[in-house]
Amino acid sequence: MMAKLKQRWIPCSEKLPEDDGWYLTSFGNEWTTDHFGKINKEKKIYSSMVRIHKYDKKSKNFYTGYGLIVGMVAAWMPLPEPYGGEKE
């Protein structure tokens, strides 16, 4: 039987990480236009991605591995423990 993960997404509006380090982040953007540039008046289009980014508590920003600030991070969670092999 698989154990449930006890982690959950933490909205940035609720809390930011307490320590510097790498975190799983969910970020995205809303558009009012489709990919052809046509305005969509009925609903906004939301694009979301999950990536690993580095958090700096002094600046309160998430960064890419190249040192670029990641905008629009909506939520984060600690990275899971690395795979340790099958346990019986």
Polypeptide structure, described:
It is a single chain. This protein has 88 residues and is mainly β. It has a domain of 59 residues. Helix content is 0%, strand content 39%. It has no helices and 5 strands. Strands 1-5-2-3-4 form a 5-stranded antiparallel β-sheet, with no helix packed on it. β3 and β4 form a beta hairpin. The N and C termini lie close together (10 Å). The mean pLDDT is 78.
Task: Map the helices and strands.
Blueprint: E1 10-11, E2 21-31, E3 45-56, E4 61-63, E5 73-78
Antiparallel strand pairs: 1-5, 2-3, 2-5, 3-4
Quick rundown:
The chain has 88 residues and is mostly beta strands. The protein has strands spanning 10-11, 21-31, 45-56, 61-63, 73-78.
Provide keyphrases for this structure.
88 residues, mainly beta, 5 strands
Number of helices: 0
Overall outline = globular
| Gap from first CA to last CA | 10 Å
In helices, the fraction of residues equals under 10%
Low-confidence stretches: none
Helix and strand element order? EEEEE
**What is the average of the pLDDT values?**
78
Q: What structural category do the secondary elements indicate?
A: mainly beta
Strand element count: 5
Strand content: 35-45%
| Major sheet strand order | 1-5-2-3-4
Largest beta-sheet details: 5 strands, antiparallel
What is the radius of gyration? 17 Å
